[in-house]
Design brief:
This protein has 4 helices and 5 strands, in the order E-H-E-H-E-H-E-E-H. Helices cover 40% and strands 28% of the residues. Strands 1-3-2-4-5 form a 5-stranded mixed beta sheet, sandwiched between helices. By secondary structure, it is of the alpha/beta class. Helix 2 links the parallel strand 2 (21-27) and strand 3. It has a single domain, classed as Glutaredoxin (3-Layer(aba) Sandwich), CATH 3.40.30.
Length: 106
């Protein structure tokens, strides 16, 4: 993982999403589409550095969070603002789609 997209566990998750804007990627290392999403997220994280938090949740290691949010397919990206889910994306997303969504909540 890069310094811009952090891996989170159950203990870190609430603090991450509680304040400001956060984009959380639910993924697994064996998922091909999930690996395709990584460079898009890292590029996006570099573009909006400091204004949005980016995190990844490995559904195999942190299944409780995936279950809590009803994640049934991966990659699934959840956009949060001040602890509330604002938008959900299922499948690989382009940078442009994510930029539009983030811009609408900043």
């Amino acid at each position: 993982m890069s310094e811009l997209v952090q891996e989170v566990c159950s203990a870190d998750f609430e603090e991450l999403i509680s304040k400001g804007v956060a984009l959380v990627d639910f993924w697994a290392p064996w998922c091909g589409p999930c690996r395709m999403q990584v460079p898009v997220l890292e590029d996006l994280a570099g573009s909006v550095r400091g204004r949005v938090k980016f995190a990844k949740v490995n559904i195999d290691e942190v299944a409780d969070i995936a279950e809590r949010f009803g994640v049934q397919a991966i990659p699934t990206l959840l956009l949060f603002k001040d602890g509330n889910e604002i938008r959900r994306f299922i499948g690989v997303q382009t940078k442009e789609i994510l930029v539009d969504a983030i811009s609408s909540v900043l």
